[in-house]
Design a protein that fits this description.
With 802 residues, the chain is an alpha/beta fold. The chain is 45% helix and 11% strand. Helix 14 links the parallel strand 12 and strand 13. The chain has 31 helices and 22 strands. It is elongated, with a radius of gyration of 51 Å. InterPro entries: DEAD/DEAH_box_helicase_dom, Helicase_ATP-bd, Helicase_C-like, P-loop_NTPase, RNA-helicase_DEAD-box_CS, SPB4-like_CTE. RNA helicase. Pfam families: CTE_SPB4, DEAD, Helicase_C. It is found in: Nucleus, Nucleolus.
Length: 802
């Protein structure tokens, strides 16, 4: 706001209008534009279909600018019929083919109706858009952001997998919400600041899916919270007209807009549709062969359950078909689902295994093939699945896999919905079987085997719960062969196939059950007597009844067939392009030179013949690289035996067994034992005598060296003092002690001498104390009296000092 001056001022004065006046003029122009827009909307001829482009329609400037910036110019058939009715405030039931632009048919009216009502942030929630899946809700929200970029509305995305607390903080300020039913109901029940009393529009995308048994309770609870006076828009490729569904949503004289009813088919004309009759055990073989033949295509494969998605994805990923593989199902985390959706949308050639979570509404660019590995539950599901390709007048192809028992019923249901599918055959020369590879993988990988068991049970359950029993005949399916095609050793037990009397059998007494089993297992022999079979089956019986006993591990094959047979098996596997062949065998000639080979092989010729040219198992490139190192090759070679050499230089093993006949020729064992002991005793005595003589000579040499050192010490002392001094390094007479030891050694030859234990001497004792203990001793020729008193000690010290 501009402020005007109150006092006099010098200079030139410029007059300007106040800002409030400018705002009032702008508001007046907006009111005039809005009144003109309302008049043009009221003058729309809903039966004329006079609009071909968005620019010719009575739309607001922000909406028109957003459509033009997003490159939306011309209207599709569903938009021509639905948008005029929605702009005038009518309830709509919209049905159109997949990929015909239904999203814009309800987003444009949502923006326009809120704009003409001057909706602001203070007015609260104005439009609620419900989607059955998170991926479809994200896609709708992205389109809303594009075409509504010039509006001032606040829009939000409320789906599962995100923080509930963060959504609560922003929910009260939103004008438009795109959400899934479960999370929306949770906020209605738990978020206090969430007000929906002023709701103007309710939109249900894929309405037939939202109102079926899966979302019926959530939708009913959501509708109870909403105000009765509102506009409701329902859009889907297969719409419902049931009075009960319309009454639940409180629709008031809805306009039924069906674009494809007059058409010859409920699917796009650019879609080529075929089906293949294949046995249940051969489905995975046919799918694998198809993927291998279309590596440069973008393929979307539908299966009936998330556990089947995981098994097929993991199995094919291990076999590496040569195309990027992705998988998507409802039990994944939201971040992973969003990442996989973006990857598949951006890729040019890839294969996505998915459940019906991506069957509705999602727009994947340029999908070449839609493969339905499992039969859809009804014709509507088929239409939604094939709608992921041939979108917006583009070409596309779809193939449906049918079991022989499903062919007649499913084709009949599709003809009733004006869907024509042609039967095609598979070229047998391009058909590849992966049954053995799956069995091998399941045998080596327990986790993959567990996934296969879960996939088998989930498939049988999906057939069991189907309503249309004319198509889905569980009793006619070859379940045992199907389990073998998944690589399983046998069909897993299925609890829900016990029959209607399962509960009564569970509550019955054990005696009654065993008696009934015994009666049922009795047979009649030709003689007329009845005998009962053995009803107890042990784990060994079950083990020998397995169907894949020919699948053996590598170490067992080597034990049975040897290394040569194992190498032949590996070579055969390499020739047949087996996907699971990992190990290679390299000879020494390819990795080590002759000099290194000579150093590694044993020295004696006999062991050379036994070992020969050894082959080394290589299971990785790293190990193959290590073979080129001579030092590291020692770790892979067979280690030799430790040898000892005799006097002639001939090698022998440390322990060698003697010939039994030669041993008996030398006499009985006891006599040989006694003779051996005598010889060993004589040998030990001779060796002991030689050892003692050597020890005596060593002591004599030591004594001579000691006397020489004493003589040298005495000569040095005489030169220094002029007196003769005798140094005694040991207590006692050395010569006497050594002579005594020598005499003892000579007298005790052949006997072990006992060590002589001497009493430790004190500082005032000498050898004479041991014999009679004299009181005097000689030291350097001076007679010294042992000191007894302090006077004697002083006299001895004065005598020594001279």
């Amino acid at each position: 706001m501009a402020l005007l001056g109150t006092g006099p001022s010098k200079g030139l004065k410029v007059k300007s209008k106040p800002r409030s006046e400018a705002h009032s003029l702008k508001r007046k122009r907006d009111d005039e534009d809005l009144d003109g827009l309302n008049q043009r909307v009221q003058g729309i001829n809903v039966k004329g279909n006079e609009y071909e482009t968005f620019a010719s329609m009575p739309l607001s400037q922000p909406t028109a600018s957003g459509l033009e910036a997003s490159h939306y110019k011309t209207l599709t058939d569903i938009q021509k019929q639905a948008v005029p009715h929605a702009l005038k405030g009518s309830d709509i039931l919209g049905a159109a083919k997949t990929g015909s632009g239904k999203t814009l048919a309800f987003l444009v009216p949502v923006l326009e109706n809120l704009y003409r009502r001057r909706w602001t942030e203070l007015d609260g929630l104005g439009a609620l858009i419900l989607s059955p899946t998170r991926e479809l809700a994200i896609q709708i929200f992205e389109v809303l952001r594009k075409i509504g970029r010039y509006h001032t509305f606040s829009a939000g995305l409320v789906i599962g997998g995100k923080s509930l607390k963060e959504e609560r903080e922003r929910l009260g300020r939103m004008n438009i919400l795109v959400c899934t039913p479960g999370r929306m109901l949770q906020h209605m029940d738990q978020t206090a600041a969430f007000e929906i009393d002023n709701l103007q529009m309710l939109v249900l995308d894929e309405a037939d899916r939202i109102m079926d048994m899966g979302f019926q309770r959530d939708v009913d609870a959501i509708v109870e919270h909403l105000p009765k006076e509102r506009q409701t828009l329902l859009f889907s490729a297969t719409q419902t007209k049931k009075v009960s569904d319309l009454a639940r949503l409180s629709l008031r004289d809805p306009e039924y807009v069906a674009v494809h009813e007059a058409a010859t088919s409920a699917t796009p004309s650019t879609l080529q549709q075929n089906y293949v009759v294949t046995l249940l055990p051969e489905k995975l073989d046919t799918l694998w062969s198809f993927i291998r033949s279309n590596l440069k295509s973008k393929i979307l494969v539908f299966v009936s359950s998330g556990k089947q998605v995981r098994f097929v994805y993991e199995a094919f990923r291990h076999m590496q078909p040569g195309i990027p593989l992705l998988h998507l199902h409802g039990r994944q985390k939201q971040t992973a689902r969003l990442e996989i959706t973006n990857k598949f949308s951006a890729s040019k050639n890839s294969c996505l295994f998915a459940t019906d979570v991506v069957a509705r509404g999602l727009d994947f660019p340029a999908v070449d093939w839609v493969i339905q590995l499992d039969c859809p539950e009804d014709a509507d599901t088929y239409i939604h699945r094939v709608g992921r390709t041939a979108r917006y007048e583009r070409a596309g192809r779809a193939v449906l896999f049918l079991e022989p028992s499903e062919e007649e019923g499913m084709v009949k249901r599709l003809e009733q919905r004006k869907v024509t599918v042609e039967k095609i055959n598979v070229r047998q020369n391009k058909q590849q079987s992966i049954k053995n590879q799956l069995q091998n993988m399941c045998f080596k990988n327990p986790e993959l085997k567990y996934l296969g068991q879960k996939a088998f049970v989930s498939y049988v359950r999906s057939i069991h719960i189907q309503k249309d029993k004319e198509i889905f005949k569980l009793n006619e399916l070859p379940l045992e062969e199907f389990s073998a095609s998944l690589g399983l050793p046998g069909a897993p037990k299925i609890r829900f196939l016990k029959g209607d009397n399962a509960k009564s059998l569970k509550n019955a007494s054990r005696q009654a059950v065993t008696s009934s089993e015994d009666e049922g297992e009795r047979d009649t022999v030709p003689g007329g007597e009845s005998t009962s079979k053995k009803s107890t089956r042990t784990k060994y019986d079950r083990m020998f009844e397995r169907t894949n006993q020919d699948i053996l591990t590598d170490h067992y094959s080597r034990l049975v067939n040897g290394d040569q047979a194992q190498s032949e098996n590996i070579n055969d596997a390499d020739e047949s392009n087996d996907f699971l062949t990992v190990k290679r065998r390299l000879s020494d000639a390819s990795s080590v030179d002759s000099a290194a080979e000579e150093r590694l092989l044993p020295a004696n010729p006999e062991s050379d013949k036994a070992v020969g040219k050894m082959a080394v198992n290589v299971d990785s490139k790293r190990k193959e690289k290590l073979l080129k190192s001579k030092k590291k090759l020692l770790k892979l070679k067979k280690k030799g035996q430790k040898l000892v050499f005799d006097e002639n230089g001939n090698p022998h093993q440390i322990y060698e067994l003697e010939n039994e006949d030669q041993f008996k020729q030398r006499g009985p064992a006891d006599a040989q034992k006694a003779k051996f002991l005598e010889e060993e005793q004589a040998r030990l005595q001779t060796a002991d005598l030689a050892d003692k003589q050597a020890a005596k000579a060593k002591r004599k040499e030591k004594r001579e060296k000691l006397k020489a050192r004493e003589a040298e010490g005495a000569a040095d002392a005489n030169r220094e003092d002029g007196r003769q001094a005798v140094l005694v390094p040991f207590e006692g007479d050395v010569d006497e002690d050594l002579d005594t030891l020598d005499a003892r050694d000579e007298s005790d030859v052949g006997e072990s001498p006992e060590p002589v234990k001497k009493r430790p001497r004190k500082w005032f004792e000498d050898d004479a104390d041991d014999v009679g203990k004299p009181k005097r001793k000689q030291k350097g020729g001076i007679e010294v009296q042992e000191p007894e008193t302090l006077e004697d000690l002083e006299a001895m010290a004065s005598g020594l000092l001279g």
